[in-house]
Amino acid sequence: MAINHAGGSTVRVEQVDKQYDSKQGTVQALADINFEVSPGEFICLVGPSGCGKTTLFRILAGLEPPTSGEVILNGSTVTKPNTDMGIVFQEYHLFPWQTVRENVAFGLKKANVPKDERSQRVQQLIDLVGLEGFEDSYPKELSGGMKQRVALARALAIDPSLLLMDEPFGAVDAQTREMLQDELIDIWRETNKTVLFVTHDVEEAVKLADRVVVMGRNPGSIRGIVEIDLVRPRSRADPEFGEYYERVRDLIHT
Questions:
Q1: pTM, whole model, 2 decimals?
Q2: Backbone angles phi, psi at 38, to 5 degrees
Q3: Which end of the chain is more exposed for a tag (fewer CB within 10 A), N or C?
Q4: What pLDDT digit, counting tens, does each position of 108-141 carry?
């Protein structure tokens, strides 16, 4: 199973609404969410706490249904997680009793990939995320940044065309976060995946994304979509970076 260089998914989010029933009555968590993602595009979803980013993420991943509307992945409506998507959460969700190698191999084992092919694929991914030499380590022996690399390698193992990431670097220190951002861009270029990346950090969104989908709250809705026309690697010291940062922030606070 070679790494896919054929390009990522097409994603369409069409008129997605989400309502919850509460003691106070019906809560409108999301209202009329519409956007499209092209194959191989890196999209960041950004917005303040309580704007429904995580709810939208769960709908995109097929972990919960919208009240109305739909998410279409490569022409099919998403109703549950599938092998076309790899999911990375802020919490690493690694199996503590399994080594790095075994954690990365989990999805391949479930898919009955033959042992030789599985072991070749796992080593390829461990090398890709920079964990050579840690194949036989257990999660408790790894730093936060290393655990997140294992989670990323595990999500990539089934060779999904779409990578869904929910605040994946939120639990690591600032220095590790910056390093992981750079590594993620390298991996994205190497694999041509489509990436949908949820963050509350405007700077992270401007650094990573081709386009930033900006959400507001009450109810959760899209305030605007900002195309980031900057070459990579991007520097905060660049005046244009600052201009994009302010544009995104202004949209959040309107």
A1: 0.90
A2: -85, 160
A3: C
A4: 988 888 999 999 999 999 998 889 999 999 999 9
